[in-house]
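Box 3.1. Reading complex inputs
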Amino acid sequence: MSLNSVPLANRIHIGLFGRRNAGKSSIMNAITGQNLSIVSEIKGTTTDPVIKAMELLPLGPVAIIDTPGIDDEGELGELRVKRSYQMLNKSDVAVLIIDANIGMSKEDEKLLKKIKEKAIPYLIVMNKADIKEIEKKEADTIWVSAKTGKNIFELKEKLAKLALQEETEKTIVADLLEPSDLVLLVVPIDKAAPKGRLILPQQQTIRDILDADCVSIVVKENQIAETLENLKQKPKLVITDSQVFDVADSYTPKDIWLTSFSILFARYKGNLKQAIEGARAIETIRDSDKILISEGCTHHRQCEDIGTVKLPSWIRNYTNKNIEFEFTSGTEFPEELEQYKMIIHCGGCMLNDREMTYRYRCASDQDTPITNYGILIAHLKGILERSIEPFSL
Amino acid sequence: MSLNSVPLANRIHIGLFGRRNAGKSSIMNAITGQNLSIVSEIKGTTTDPVIKAMELLPLGPVAIIDTPGIDDEGELGELRVKRSYQMLNKSDVAVLIIDANIGMSKEDEKLLKKIKEKAIPYLIVMNKADIKEIEKKEADTIWVSAKTGKNIFELKEKLAKLALQEETEKTIVADLLEPSDLVLLVVPIDKAAPKGRLILPQQQTIRDILDADCVSIVVKENQIAETLENLKQKPKLVITDSQVFDVADSYTPKDIWLTSFSILFARYKGNLKQAIEGARAIETIRDSDKILISEGCTHHRQCEDIGTVKLPSWIRNYTNKNIEFEFTSGTEFPEELEQYKMIIHCGGCMLNDREMTYRYRCASDQDTPITNYGILIAHLKGILERSIEPFSL
C-alpha cells in the first residue's frame, strides 16, 4: 500500500487512552476499518504501547498509539500506567475513551487533567453508547458505539479537525521586526561546518527575515565590527552562533539586541522558558552530581565536539565541581531522568518537533532541568540575560 | 552487501571502451574479481551498454559502464557504436582497451580523439600482453593480461588515481571577490518558493561568500534600492534570481556588477560558454521550429511554472514565430536532439553534475544549442551582456 510510504515520524500521532475494557482497541478498529489489534473482553489485553501506522479517513496516514489501561493494578500494572502517561508526550492528539455505562472515573479525570496541563488537543469518546443512550452535546466529547458504528463517522471527522487544527503561524524572529529592519547574522565557518552549505537553522532564519520584508546581513565573526561601521542604519538585532557568543557580545553595541540561533529555536519550538530555567540549574550543581549531555543526531561533528569535549570542560571550570557526565546521541534517550541533576541537549535541528517536545515533556514530568547547548553557553559566559531581552517571557 | 548501499549516481563512473574482442569484459572481471559479464570469444557479445555497480579496490564502490565494440558493423552495429560514444558523456574516467597483438586501430584512434576533446581523464589498456610482450612506459598506457593477471594490480591502482584526481577547487563567486567585499543577493519569495527554506543555489552562494571572507546581504526585490542607499560601501556584485532580473537591473547602478544565480551555476558546472551560445540561438528561430524545454526534477513548482507557462509565452512574444514546444522532466531526456532547434534546460539544481554534463555533452555532439532558463531570460530581456561582464569567457 502506498500509504506505507509515509514515514512514521511524519504522521500525526493520535494517542488512545482509557481504562481497561473501555474499548480502546474496538474504537481503533472501528475508525480505521482494520482488525489489527486483539479485541477481547479480558481486562488488560493491551499491555505495552504499540504505535501503528494506519490510514484514518478523511485525515489520511496517521500513527495510532494504543496504550495500556490507565487503571491497571499491581506492580507491573503500575509500570504500564506510567508508560501510558509517557505516551501523552508523543501524542499530537489525545483521545480519552470512556465506557459510557460507567462514566468518567477518577483515573479518567486524572489523565484528563494531565492532558490539559500539557495543552494537548484532545477528544473524549463515550463508548458503548448503544447500551445507555445519553446524548450530550459537549464540544470536547462525542458519544459513539464501536459495536454498532453509531457516530463513528462523526468521530473520524472530529479527529481530523483536531489533528489539522491550523498551527498558530510560528515565526523564528519575524515578530521582533518591522519591515526594512536589518538583521546581522554571525555564522562562523570552522572545519566542522558542513561543506558548501548553511545549516538548517541559519537557512530558516534568513528565510523568516525575508518573509518579514527585512534584510539579512550574513558575516563571519571577524567582520562584525567592520560591517556595523559600514551601515548607515543600525541593525535591529544581531543573531549569533553560540560558539562565538562572546565575540558577538563584545562587538555588538549595547543598544542593539543580541541573541543566538539556539535561543531563537528554543523559542520557536516552545521550550525557551524551560531551557532558560534549565540552564540556571548549573548554579546548584554539587560534587558527584550526574549531568546528561544528549545529542539528537550522530553525524554533526560540530555538535559532537561541543557536546563531548568543550561543554564538559567549560562546566568543570565554571562550577569547579567533580561532575559525572553521561552522553547519548541519536534516538537514544533514557527513560529514567531523575538520576540526572540536569540535561543539556543539542539544539535538535535534526529531530522533529514531536521528539523534542517529548524529551522536554519527559524532563518536566520528572522534575529534571533541561536546557540546550547554546543557552547554557550564554549562561556560562554571562550573556544569557542580555540575549533574552528581546523576548517577553 | 553493504557496498550496494552506495547509490549508482554517487559512484564514480568508469567507462570501458574498445573494439569487439579487445577484452573489455575480461578486464572488467579481472579488476573487480567478479564474473558478471559474459566473457566469450564471439565478437559483439556486449551489445547494449550496461552500468554495473561494483567494488573496485583500492577505490571502493564504482559504477562500470560496459559498452559495445566501437568497430561493430551493419545497421544495428552502427547504432551500437553510437551508443558507446554516447556513454563517453556519462564517464568520469574512460578506459580504452586495445588488443596488444593488434595494436591501436583507426577506431581506437577516433575514440581517443573524442575522449581528449571532451577532456575526460583516460587510460589506455594494452590487453593480452601475455601473447606479445612489448612493455612500453607511457603515462597514459598500461600493458596487462586479463588472462594471467599480469599488471592487473597496477591497473587498479592507476584507475584509482585517475578517479580520485583532486577536483580543481571550484568556487561559485569567491574568485570575483576580495576579502570584506559586500555582495547583494536578490531572493524573491513567491507562492512557489519552498516553505521556510532557501533553495540550494542560494545557500551555496551565501556559504561561498562567507568562505571568501565577504559579506552577503540578502533582500527581496522590493528592497534593493533602500538597501543600496543604506550602505556606506558599494557592493561589489548583485546576484539576482532570474525571475526578477529586470527589476534588479533597473535598481543596480551601472558601476556595480550584476549577474544571476543561473549564470553563476552554469559557470560553476562548466557550461556557461555553451549556455550563452545556446541562448543566442533564439535569434535564428523560425516558424514551426521545435524547442525542447527540459526540467531536471518533477517537484519544483517554481521551475514548472517558468518552464511550461512563462518561457513559451515570453519566447513567442520575443520571436513572434509559431514555435512548437516539447517538454520533458525528471530523468527523461531524449536521445535524438537534432530534431530540436534549441534546448532550454532548468538550472539543474537537483541533478548531479554528471547528468548535467551528460546533457550538455550530448547536445554538443548533436550540434544542438542548449541554454538554461535564467540565461535565456537574461537574453530575452537584453541583460545578458551586462550579466556576463564579471567573467572572462
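In summary: Chain A has three domains: 2-164, 174-264, 272-384.
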